[in-house]
Amino acid sequence: NLDIKSKNGVLITNGSLLGDALAFKSNLGILKGKEENSFLRGRINVLDIKDFISIVSAHNSNDESFEGKILGDFSANFNLYDPLRLTSEISFDEFVLKREGKNFSIQDRKSKIKIVNGKISRWNLKIGDNEEFFHSLGKGRLSGEFEVENVFKFDSSWSEVLSSKIKVESGIIEGRNVLNRRKGLFKTALDLKGKDINFTIDDIPGRFENLNVYLLGENEDFLIQKFNLKYGKGDVSLGGTIKLNLPYPEIDIGYNIS
What we know:
Strand content: over 45%
Shape: globular
Low-confidence stretches: none
Helix content: under 10%
Mean pLDDT: 92
Structural class: mainly beta
Order of helices and strands: EEEEHEEEEEEEEEEEEE
Distance between the termini: 56 Å
């Protein structure tokens, strides 16, 4: 559902996605003299998380153990020709995911993202507990130097939401991702680990055991530092580099099976 109209140099939009799961309205000042009046306001209203997560894979709609909801608000006031000096806020009234006895929810009601005139006033989102969590912290000024760090750790069984063919018995996925801007240049860094993951895949006989992965990334360059697993009576390992050049990535990976 989307309604767009133009009036006196302002593009006015009202809409919703996925039913009323995401409702929003915005004014975009396209003409000079109108640009400072631009805004975006909206409401997140996901009452049944299965409807939302089924977009990833339809099998989630049949998972009786999967439940939860996400309720929150977002807003932004900005100049369309100077967007890095925006004032914006994202907050959650409720964020709960439950699956197979695991509970992934906001513990601190003060968790929010707030930016005032381009400066990060508060960027602290924490979902989960000490065992499983996603924690996002940010500081700085969007038009100058800033950094956003995301740290996460969760049971690898959450990866079952990606496909009905994956069955995970045990294991942990954890890592860290950083986005920063220094001297006008953007940089991303990734540190991702998978530990002692045991799983099966439908239509493939046997079990994959003791998968241990260590992946490092910086901008478009990725290094597979470790990838070891057991399959049947054999050991599989691989390593190498991936460079995400467009349109053709550069891949240099070697493997060993014993």
